[in-house]
């Protein structure tokens, strides 16, 4: 620990070093808003002609910058920009942190990622309705800094884990796209059945032997419920997964394992929440409508869901992609004045095709979904390793060379 020292963050980083000016060379910007960034994750960007850019689109970024949301710091919205686009512009709701020669840029990002840093920001926030932290508070944060060589080693260890996670995420996007293409070939274009007879249906021409039926007849359609939050026996030491829409909007993953909150058996019995087995298809049905995920463990949900229970005829593969490809229709049946909601009654009337002779589709989809699930399990394991190592490496508690060997074995 002799080579480690405490410094103020403002001594080793530049904050908001560049802003949009009249001399900006691009006609279109690629804009990152606060809502587009999760914890180390960029969900989307928006293209704007420079003349129509939002008033908050002001901060310029470069490769190696870390952007940190100054609003509601407890949400942990930050991102390391490895290769930003030339015309990338971020909201003034972010602080752009640029490393000086005194700190490794990726090490800086991991300092920001540490829960201790988040706790510090939360302690400094001001404003009840719109809690935010000032740039001065960020500058005055005390951080522990080893020599540059050690910084680079720590950044390399944690970065190699993040790079593998990122690779798995990209692989899963490709695998899901392949599965969607397969679904459309079988259920939209009817490719394997083109040489056979077709018959009329409510959904147009379909292969002979197929039927068009209501989803409520095809599978069990479940809603959810919330145990009284005032009764601690319904929640304390609960071990039953109880999903809320936030779980799905946060993780945005085909498969989901754990819910952020759990309920007890008594809580399940005393509410309208319904337990369902692994590998059912959950869809959020209110507030944010249309987030879809498949549970890997037994679970229940709050009332903001419609859950489909697969059976021998209607597999989770068909149900998942049926929801995906019919989302515009599902959104069109939502109603409500305060917030939109898709009712179970209206949903059950939607039409789905009851197929025949799709064993090949099921087998191919099963292989793709198993690969996706395997990658997600690895992501969870790597995330747990990173969460264990990060605070210990940043505090000097763990020997860097030992951590290097451990991570090499895993990767």
From TrEMBL:
Cleavable signal peptide: none
Keyword annotations: DNA-binding, Hydrolase, Restriction system
Pfam families: Methylase_S (PF01420)
Residues annotated as domain Type I restriction modification DNA specificity: 2-176, 207-381
BP term (GO), one: DNA restriction-modification system
Main enzyme class: hydrolase
MF annotations from Gene Ontology: DNA binding; type I site-specific deoxyribonuclease activity
EC number: 3.1.21.3
Family according to the record: Belongs to the type-I restriction system S methylase family.
Listed name of the protein: Type I restriction-modification system, specificity subunit S
Organism expressing this protein natively: Geobacillus stearothermophilus
